[in-house]
Structures are given as structure tokens and as C-alpha cells.
Amino acid sequence: ETGVTQSPTHLIKTRGQQVTLRCSSQSGHNTVSWYQQALGQGPQFIFQYYREEENGRGNFPPRFSGLQFPNYSSELNVNALELDDSALYLCASSLDWGNTEAFFGQGTRLTVV
Amino acid sequence: GQQLNQSPQSMFIQEGEDVSMNCTSSSIFNTWLWYKQEPGEGPVLLIALYKAGELTSNGRLTAQFGITRKDSFLNISASIPSDVGIYFCAGHREGNKLVFGAGTILRVKS
Q1: Do residues B86 and B106 make contact, with C-beta atoms less than 8 angstroms apart?
Q2: Omega before B43 within 30 of 0, i.e. cis
Q3: How far apart are CA A91 and CA B30, in angstroms?
Q4: pLDDT per residue over B15-29, tens digit each?
Q5: How far is B100 from chain A (nearest CA, A)?
Q6: Which residues of chain B approach chain A closer than 8 Å at the C-beta?
Q7: Inter-chain CB proximity B2 and A42 less than 8 Å
Q8: Mind listing the pLDDT tens digit for each residue in B37-73?
Q9: Is the backbone peptide bond immediately before A8 cis, with ω within 30 degrees of 0?
Q10: What pLDDT, in 10s, does the model give residues A30-67?
Q11: Could you say which of A50, A55, A101 has the minimum Cβ distance to residue B48?
């Protein structure tokens, strides 16, 4: 139990739709990162938020966006969904920006049809 | 795409056997992390390594940070059925971005 919770656990969307995924960080952690994990692969870094500001981004298009709130919870938004966006989306929280130990939630399984 | 080469891709071993898996990169990393992921769950942090040459244990698990900073290995001694899962290595270089390997699938015969 990492204390990182994500919602919803499963979601089915239609191509072209928009989706919002939510993450509640572990207590005391001010840094949150989002990862996309395709079937049979390791997680791929999407972006990170530190104290409500985006603080690093991976190789994902602008239709992937995020927010971090004053209580350090976070959202991942994906617009104009494509079939290839089907994946497990993982949120990870870290104690601080300089701390590399990331603790993951259970993920949200997104299926785009 | 993935920048870490993780091997083997999968292992099917007898309960009680020792397991060894490794991760290599063409680039230097400052930190190596090992995670385990079970079906329907997120990755769980097993061991974190911060210095080249560092050898760290967590119960039956032992991991080492390679001297060149381009590799790491994870050993599991006396495997048990609950060791089943996918083991990922992850390297950290700049910012807080973690780069993951493709994983090693471990199956244990009891």
C-alpha cells in the first residue's frame, strides 16, 4: 500500500472523446509524475508536476495535459483520444522534486474503442 | 522508446532456486531503482541504488549499481511462489524522469 490512489480504476472511451484521470498523492509528497504503460512494456514518462507547475515532460503530444492542485492531488487530461492511447495510466508521487524514489498508484486502465 | 535493455525477458524457475536479472544502458544513470508489478497493480519499489558500486539488500533481494553507472542487477535468493510478477529496472538521469526497462516476467513452479 503506497498511499497513492487513482480513479477511476477502469474506463472505456470512444475515439475522439476527452478523458480526465485523477490521482491523490501520498501524504507529504509534493511531486507527482504520470506514466503511460502499454501492454507488455515498461512505463513511459508523460510529465511531472512540482508545486502546481509542470516540471518536465516526456515525448507526448500537447493533447496530454495535466494539473496539480494546492493539496498536491493531480489530474491527467487527454483530448481527442486515439486507439493507441489505450493503456494503463500510472501516477507516482515523490517526497520532493529532488527525491528520485517514486511511489505508484494502482493505475487507471483506459480502453479507447 | 525504451533506453534500458533488461534481460532475460522471462524466466520460469523452480521454487527455491535463485534468480538473477540485469539491466544495461548505453547512457550513465545517477540512480537505479528496481520495481515489481503484479497483475492489476502499479509498480512497487523494491530497492533504490544511489552510488556506483553500491550493493543493497532487502530481505531475499539484492541489487547492485554497476561501477560504470550503465548497468544494474537484481538477485532473488530462494524463490517462493509469491515472487511471481514482472520486475522492472528504472534509471534516473535528470529532473525526476524515470526511464524504465521492458521488464522481466518471473514465473515460479512450486
Answers
A1: yes
A2: no
A3: 22
A4: 999 999 999 999 999
A5: 6
A6: 2, 4, 6, 30-31, 33, 35, 40-45, 48, 88, 90, 92, 95-103
A7: yes
A8: 999 899 999 999 999 999 999 999 999 999 999 999 9
A9: yes
A10: 899 999 999 999 999 999 999 899 989 999 999 999 99
A11: A101
Cis peptide before B8 (omega within 30 of 0): yes
Q: Note the Cα B84 to chain centre separation in Å.
A: 13
End-to-end Cα, chain A, rounded Å: 32
- The residue count for chain A: 113
* Alpha-carbon distance values, B73 to A8, B38, B93, B98, B107 (Å): 35, 20, 18, 17, 18
**Non-local CB neighbours of A71 within 8 Å, separated by 6+ positions:** none
Nearest to A42 among B30, B41, B102 (CB): B102
Nearest by Cα to B29 from B6, B56, B3, B61: B3
Handedness of CA A102, A107, A113, B2 (dihedral sign): positive
* Residues in B touching A36 (Cβ below 8 Å): none
Interatomic CA distance for residues A88 and B98, integer angstroms? 17
The residue assigned the cell 500537447 is A62
DSSP class of A25: P
pLDDT recorded at residue B2: 52
Cell 512450486 found at: B110
In A, which residues are within 8 Å of B43 by CB distance?
A: 43, 90, 104
Q: Grid coordinates representing B40?
A: 492489476
Supply B27's cell numbers: 547512457
